[in-house]
Design brief:
The complex is a heterodimer of chains A (291) and B (1097). Chain A is an alpha/beta fold and 291 residues long. Chain A has a domain of 191 residues: Rossmann fold (3-Layer(aba) Sandwich), CATH 3.40.50.150. Chain A has 9 helices and 8 strands. Chain A has an 8-stranded mixed sheet with strand order 3-2-1-4-5-7-6-8, sandwiched between helices. In chain A, helix 1 crosses helix 2 and helix 5 packs across helix 6. With 1097 residues, chain B is mostly beta strands. Among the domains of chain B are: 106 residues, Lipocalin (Beta Barrel); 130 residues, no CATH class. In chain B, 3% of the residues lie in helices and 56% in strands. In chain B, strands 40, 41, 42, 43, 47, 48 and 49 form a 7-stranded mixed sheet that branches. A 5-stranded mixed sheet of chain B has the order 10-11-12-13-17, with no helix packed on it. Chain B has a 5-stranded mixed sheet with strand order 30-60-59-58-57. Chain B is globular, with a radius of gyration of 36 Å. About 2% of the residues of chain B have low confidence. The chains are: A alpha/beta (291), B mainly beta (1097). At the A-B interface, helix 1, helix 6, helix 7, strand 8 and helix 8 of A face strand 26 and strand 90 of B. Chain A: Methylates the 2'-O-ribose of nucleotides at positions 32 and 34 of the tRNA anticodon loop of substrate tRNAs.
């Protein structure tokens, strides 16, 4: 797809470039906030799986607007990411206790008010496997969250609404007072992704955070059906202004309210993909010369 | 009311395959396991193992070494696993058994299973099962009861994408775990429960997650495949942390590998399997199966066959013997020809040093040979490798020197001699073999090239003598004999090297020569060239001399230019296309180069760049030769290039005494003669015949040949056990009930529109009738035009990306006349492809037909709704109305006749709104389109003025709309028509509204809403009469809900009647077919297709 074409087809991609966000996903967090006010009163926030950093950008910008106190944002990712003003970066694994300790130490021993995670694996196309891996990523994020989030705090994470999503709802409900499933208007209608907005962190009385053992997803059985009307139900909320832009809509290049069209390069170019070597080989005509 | 949902047909990605016996294959799609026979290519039996999980792997129990030979029972136990479930399945190998697969037990694990393995306890010899799970744990369980007996964890708790086991007994069990952090961890399970088993060996190097692991039989080597598109081999014995081999070749991610004694086979996202030679790790073969994803691969115990499961649901069995057949490693595979004892043919004094000088393969089982003693011998091979000989000629001129060349089919043989004479033989003419000889030059003939002209019986002969003179002559083989005329001398300027190859094509008007110094000479042929008869003394007159127009020095570097082929240009660059051609050359630099040759009218002086050369023609025209492409075929030499049929090029390469024959249109060598061939410097020939390919070469003074018979090729052909449907997402399906069968149309991301016949009585018989690819972008919707009378001709409308709208004319006559062999043909009948913007997508269409007209309503991604009228013959679309007022992408659309010649159009958008239009004005009007076209340029009405109402129905996208007339209270409410509208939203809710259609409004009478009908986006809703609603969602649930009576609403709710799991991942469409009263079929499609029967009582 050409650059012009992508601009026409994906208005949020274009807006992200125009407004200087590192990725279009920035709008998703902004729209979740429009509905749930998750930034209210937040002074310490953690962005897990932060690269390329658009959510950290949103946090650093929006939190300071909301709060009179000094706000702190910690971004965690396995990969290094270009520095952002007002954001402390930790290059680390979210399944490690040391990472949790590092986060707390950045907050001078205090716990976070908000933990967000927009992480997702590279999908394989086997939907059950992709959904499982995404669930494990959320559970890993939840596990570290139980170490760093203050009671009453908020956790927002990307989920895939696939066949086993109810299991995940059940798990999250044991840790939070309210759980909503949010679909920002900047997330495409056709996309399987949505966001869980878990508020009022309230772990079970006997729960002891433990990084050594991964949180496992709960098994489904008769008391926890995945089929039928008795399953765990999590309210769905579409967020973002209806008068705003539609992620599925094909827009002309000249849109009113946005101003004259100007073609722009992406704010952040893609990180090094795993198939980099294969791509290099392809460019050097390798594949034409072998079988 | 009761209702049952029964799955009748399912096809999706084949995520696991295994051989139970050498020719019995198990394949898994969704939770279903199917048993196939390779020999009969029939489905033997199938069974659903998991209701809810997809099968990711199958492991057949093998009798361990040291146990009694052969199986004691007729059955085999198979370990099946997928997500968190595993099961023991019994497969009966006895052919007479009626039920061949039986599920013995199904168990659940706490975590996702990545690998499962049969293992024994050394002490008790009890049969156990080892499961590796996604958090790097291993569970050893009792195979009978499924109880966990032993549980261990590795010290490193990374999430795994892949795992593999090695070992027969629990105490020696080794695990290879492929992590999300691109590493492979090896650890021993041991006999103690432990949470911290240390990593024994860590294999680093992959640049992406590991998707597949497989051990070699002896456990010394491990193969890993990854997101980084490489296959790596690791030596475990040497404790090296570096891979011993890293190979690339797949164009996308690699999912699985299988490690065999001689090969490693990999299955990839690119839709192919690749076969790698285990010793050298060189690519041995590529098997192309489908457009995307080969998920699974397995070999039989004999390692002769490999089964592969595709993303399109296909199961193909490939032959490893075919791979071996083309790799000739041993002398015993060759047919070596020795001369018979001299007494049998040499009446004179026997020579001491008699040997074969030259040879020409002239037919599948015949060759001509020249001998040192001056004989030309004819040899015929019989079936049993015995040979019969006859002497054709004995001439002292042939003693000690003879150069042999022949046409690629052997119908003309030329033998060049030391005295400058050439003997021509036409061995295919009835014997005595026709022959002609002439002295054409004064010095010895060094090179001969026989070219087929494209006309049979007409050949171009190029001869080069030791002085470097190149003579072009023409040979015609006619019933009476051989006619031979000289045409021209091709001049090779000084310093350009000796010519070794040449090509002439009178039709194209070009000739080309390649030389030892790598120079390419191009000659423009005059239109008329006199032919000068050649007598025994040579040409009667001096042939004209042609001077090259282009001299391209070092076209292949300093290396010899070994072969040249002239082709007609595929692309027409100028109007003077007749004078264009393409030259393909090969060289000892291992490359194939392509040059385009064209003539431009004006004199041009171009700066000769690296890739362009110009030459002047006499008539003020310029010849421009430009290098189009160059590709390296081998590390060694490309020695030959042939065009067997138009555009079908073959090349012969030599590298370290290895000869490879390659079909340049494919990527796989047809034949590879390993170190047994004697190298490029010796004589060799490739003969193509209808029987197959025969390669001959001189080896140790004898003629050695290898034949790849057509028969052998076909006996090694792959076998399709299951034909695939579509390897990319299916976006739309629609169906017609025809004479008890269903005609199903489907399309989607792969842009193909496909027609299937589906018979309820024979579920394995989903038969592809037609497939057309005309859409250039993903097809999102397909609808059959309602047929007003029973007719053989049906019309299908499809639409999708790029604003493309198409009508297909389908002829289904045989559905009625011959149901068992029914067929359908499909042709494109009308289309709209021009659009304001190529990025615009048609999201959905609805077709409404009245007595007077047929209208197609389209939902567009720019928020518009457009109405197209079809002409009487469905041969043209014309846009009649548009509503551009929408601010959100329109996702779904439906239309219905509501009586009194009134028609209603409804559409749903991403903002959750449903809009209603009264389109009666358009459905009742018949305007003659042909007339319109001429008189009025374009008159498109504003549909917005017909808008009746906009309802807020869902929180976000209205993915699907189904509408029908209410059957209650005589269809009317307050005198107005009443419709039932069902919608499914991205918000997971299902809404049914009863709507009264006023002249100016669409008013909601009542609403039934199930806010939490599904856990994910609802992708399809249909109404089964006015009683039951059926919905399907991304959560892979298909649900039936009872609708309350109209007058009971709004106090009632949708009541769940039945719910089942669909094996189709990411379902995107639901289509309803009514079979008979209270009997329905529901087609769910997405990644795969599943058909359910819904029977209500």
């Amino acid at each position: 797809m050409g650059k012009l074409s992508k601009d026409k087809r994906d208005v949020y991609y274009r807006l992200a470039k125009e407004q200087g966000w590192r990725a279009r996903s920035a709008f998703k967090l902004l729209q979740v906030n429009e509905e749930f006010n998750i930034f209210e009163g937040v002074t310490r926030a953690v962005d897990l799986c932060a690269a390329p950093g658009s959510w950290s950008q949103v946090l650093s910008k929006e939190l300071s607007k909301n709060s009179s106190e000094e706000t702190q944002v910690v971004a965690v990712d396995l990969q290094a990411m270009a520095p952002l003003p007002g954001v402390t970066q930790i290059q680390g694994d979210i399944t490690k206790l040391t990472t949790a300790k590092q986060i707390i130490s950045h907050f001078d021993g205090a716990q976070a008010d908000l933990v967000v995670s927009d992480g997702a694996p590279d999908v394989t196309g086997l939907h059950d496997l992709d959904e499982y891996i995404q669930a494990q990523l959320i559970l890993a994020a939840l596990n570290i969250t139980t170490h760093v989030l203050r009671p009453g705090g908020t956790f927002v994470a990307k989920i895939f609404r696939g066949k086993d999503v109810t299991l995940l709802y059940a798990q999250l409900k044991t840790f939070f007072g309210t759980v909503h499933i949010a679909k920002p208007r900047s997330s495409r209608n056709s996309s399987i992704e949505a966001f869980v907005v878990c508020m009022d962190y309230n772990p079970p009385a006997d729960y002891v955070p433990n990084m050594a053992n991964p949180l496992m997803d709960v098994p489904y059985d008769a008391s926890n059906p995945i089929v039928g009307s008795n399953r765990f139900i999590v309210p769905f909320v579409a967020c973002g202004d209806l008068r705003g832009f539609d992620a599925d809509m094909t827009y002309p290049l000249e849109i009113e309210d946005v101003g004259p069209y100007q073609q722009r390069e992406p704010t952040q170019t893609p990180i090094c993909p795993p198939y980099k070597r294969a791509l290099e080989l392809k460019r050097s005509n390798f594949f034409n010369n072998t079988l | 009311m009761v209702a049952r949902l029964v799955s009748r047909y399912n096809q999706g990605s084949v995520t696991a395959v295994a051989f139970v016996e050498d020719t019995i294959v198990l394949s898994a799609s969704g939770g279903t396991l199917a048993l196939h026979s390779v020999d009969s290519q029939q489905l033997i039996d199938q069974i659903k193992v998991f209701e809810y999980a997809r099968i990711h792997g199958v492991s057949v129990q093998e009798e361990p070494a040291g146990y009694k030979q052969g199986r004691q029972e007729d059955w085999v136990r198979v370990l099946v696993y997928g997500s968190k479930s595993w099961a023991i399945v019994i497969v009966n190998c006895r052919e007479s058994a009626c039920k061949r697969i039986r599920v013995e037990s199904v168990h659940t694990a706490e975590d996702w299973i990545k690998a499962a393995h049969w293992v024994r306890d050394r002490e008790t010899d009890g049969q156990l099962v080892a499961l590796a799970t996604a958090h790097n744990q291993v569970i050893i369980a009792d195979a009978e009861k499924g109880i966990c007996v032993h549980r261990v964890s590795c010290e490193e708790r990374s999430i795994l994408y892949a795992a593999a086991f090695y070992g027969q007994f629990t105490d020696e069990l080794l695990v290879a775990a492929g992590t999300v952090f691109n590493q492979v961890l090896l650890w021993s399970v041991g006999l103690q429960d432990s949470n911290n088993i240390p990593v024994q060996q860590r294999l680093c190097g992959h640049e992406g997650v590991i998707f597949g692991l497989s051990f070699s039989k002896d456990g010394q080597l491990l193969a890993s495949v990854s997101d980084d598109r490489s296959l790596r081999i690791w030596n475990l014995h040497k404790q090296q942390e570096q891979s011993v081999a890293t190979v690339f070749g797949h164009q996308a991610r690699i999912w699985q590998s299988v490690f065999l004694d001689q090969f490693v086979v990999t299955a990839s996202e690119d839709g192919t399997c690749r076969v790698w030679e285990r010793q050298t790790m060189e690519a041995a073969d590529v098997w192309t199966q489908c457009a995307k994803n080969v998920w699974s691969v397995a070999a039989n115990r004999a390692q002769s066959l490999v089964a592969a499961g595709g993303g399109d649901g296909s199961v193909v069995v490939w032959s490893l013997d075919a791979v071996r057949g083309k790799r000739v490693e041993q002398e015993s595979q060759l047919d070596v020809t020795h001369l018979p004892p001299q007494l049998e043919y040499n009446s004179g004094v026997p020579r001491v040093s008699e040997s074969i000088r030259g040879f020409a393969l002239i037919a599948w089982n015949q060759a001509l040979l020249t001998t040192d003693s001056g004989h030309i011998m004819h040899c015929t091979w019989s079936q049993q490798h015995s040979k019969s000989w006859s002497s054709v000629l004995n001439d002292f001129k042939l003693v000690g020197y003879s150069m042999v060349a022949s046409a690629f089919d052997g119908s003309l043989v030329a033998i060049g001699l030391r005295d400058g004479s050439v003997i021509l033989l036409a061995p295919h003419l009835p014997s005595p073999i026709n022959m002609q000889a002439a002295q054409i030059t004064s010095s010895a003939v060094r090179t001969l090239i026989v070219l087929s002209s494209g006309v049979s019986e007409l050949f171009e002969l190029i001869t080069v003598d030791t002085s470097g003179q190149v003579l072009w002559s023409r040979v015609t083989i006619c019933g009476s004999g051989i006619r031979w005329n000289a045409v021209a001398v091709l001049d090779v300027p000084q310093g350009r090297g000796l010519s070794v190859t040449a090509a002439v094509n009178q039709t194209l008007g070009w000739a080309a020569i390649g030389t030892t110094s790598g120079c390419l000479l191009v000659f423009k042929l005059p239109p008329l060239l006199a032919e000068l008869p050649i007598s025994a003394q040579g040409p009667n007159n001096t042939a004209p001399v042609l001077i090259p127009v282009i001299q391209w020095a070092r076209a292949h570097g300093r290396h010899t230019l070994t072969a040249v082929v002239l082709e007609r240009s595929h692309t027409q660059l100028t109007n003077e296309s007749d004078s264009n051609c393409t030259i393909v050359t090969s060289g000892r630099d291992g490359q194939i180069q392509r040059f385009s040759v064209r003539v431009v009218s004006e004199t041009q002086t171009l700066n000769e760049a690296d890739n362009v050369r110009c030459g002047e023609l006499s008539n003020n025209k310029t010849v421009i030769v430009s290098r189009i492409s160059g590709e390296r075929l081998t590390e060694g030499w490309v020695e030959g290039l042939f065009e067997r049929e138009k555009g079908q090029l073959y090349a012969v390469t030599f590298y370290r005494k290895r000869l490879e024959l390659l079909d340049l249109s494919g990527t796989v060598p047809l034949v590879v003669l390993s170190s047994i061939s004697s190298g490029a410097s010796k004589q060799w020939q490739v003969l193509f015949t209808p029987h197959g390919i025969r390669i001959g070469f001189m080896r140790k003074g004898h003629l050695a040949t290898y034949c790849l018979s057509q028969q052998l090729q076909s006996s090694h052909a792959s076998r399709m056990l299951v034909r695939g449907i579509s390897s990319l997402d299916i976006r739309t399906t629609c169906a017609l009930q025809l004479n008890g069968m269903m005609l199903i149309a489907s399309s989607g991301e792969d842009c193909h529109v496909r027609l299937y016949r589906y018979r309820e009585d024979d579920v394995s018989n989903m038969c592809l009738l037609a497939s057309e690819r005309r859409h250039s972008s993903a097809v999102r919707c397909a609808v059959f035009v309602p047929s007003l009378e029973e007719s053989d001709i049906r019309y299908l409308i499809t639409a999708g990306g790029g604003c493309e709208l198409r009508c297909w004319r389908i002829c289904v006559s045989s559905f009625y006349s011959n149901p068992t062999d029914s067929n359908a043909t499909m042709i494109e009948w009308a289309k709209v492809t021009k659009s304001d913007s190529a990025d615009l997508r048609i999201m959905d269409i609805a077709v409404i037909r009245t007595d007077s007209s047929t209208l197609v309503a389209g939902a567009y991604s720019d928020g518009s709704v457009r109405l197209w009228r079809m002409d009487k013959n469905f041969h043209a679309f014309k846009c009649v109305a548009r509503d551009y007022a929408g601010t959100h992408c329109v996702l779904s659309i439906a239309a219905i006749n509501i009586g009194n010649e009134r028609s209603l159009l409804v559409s749903g958008a991403t903002n959750g709104q449903v809009s209603f239009w009264d389109i009666s004005h358009f459905t009742t009007r018949t305007d003659d389109m042909t007339c319109d076209k001429q008189l009025q340029p374009r008159k498109v009405a504003d549909l917005h003025s017909s808008l009746l109402a906009v309802h807020d129905v869902h929180q976000s996208g209205v993915n699907t709309i189904y509408i029908q007339r209410s059957t209650e209270n005589g269809n009317v409410f307050k005198g107005n028509p009443v419709v039932v509208m069902a919608t499914g939203g991205d918000d997971g809710s299902v809404v049914v509204r009863i709507i009264e259609i006023d002249r100016t409004q669409a008013l909601m009478v009542s609403e039934i809403r199930h806010k939490y009908a599904h856990a994910s986006s609802v992708k399809g809703v249909v109404l089964l009469e006015n009683e039951i609603l059926c919905s399907v969602s991304t959560d892979q649930r298909l649900a039936l809900w009872t609708l309350p009576k109209l007058n009971q609403a709004p106090h009632t709710q949708l009541c769940l009647l039945a719910m089942t799991f669909t094996q189709v991942a990411d379902p995107s469409t639901l289509h309803l077919v009514k079979r008979c009263k209270k009997r329905y079929s529901l087609i769910v499609a997405g990644i795969g297709m599943e058909i359910f029967d819904a029977d209500t009582d």
